[in-house]
Design brief:
It is built from 3 helices and 4 strands. It is of the alpha+beta class. A 4-stranded mixed sheet has the order 2-1-3-4, with helices on both faces. Helix 1 runs parallel beside helix 3. The longest helix has 20 residues.
Length: 87
């Protein structure tokens, strides 16, 4: 599974998702793209979602918007498996 978080450092919603990823130890499983530092990231985001809203988690080419939805998806699909492996 290929995971990418398109985010913006100054965005509090992006920070919420990054904090969750950090707390769960998922950083090695997710590629990070800072929308203002990566050439054509805004264009790619607009093509994926029709918006330039961040954060956006891209799961195998499919976008998930909204920080709560992203955190919920990570918790259900990655976080639980990660925590079970540590137990």
């Amino acid at each position: 599974m290929k995971l990418e978080l398109i985010h913006k450092w100054a965005c509090p919603y992006s920070a919420r998702v990054r904090d969750f990823i950090e707390e769960r130890g998922l950083k090695d499983q997710i590629a990070f793209t800072e929308v203002t530092e990566t050439e054509d990231a805004k264009n790619r985001l607009a093509q994926l979602t029709g918006k330039t809203q961040v954060p956006c988690l891209v799961v195998d080419g499919e976008p998930i918007l909204e920080s709560r939805d992203i955190i919920q998806w990570l918790d259900q699909n990655i976080g639980g498996a990660q925590n079970a492996a540590k137990a």
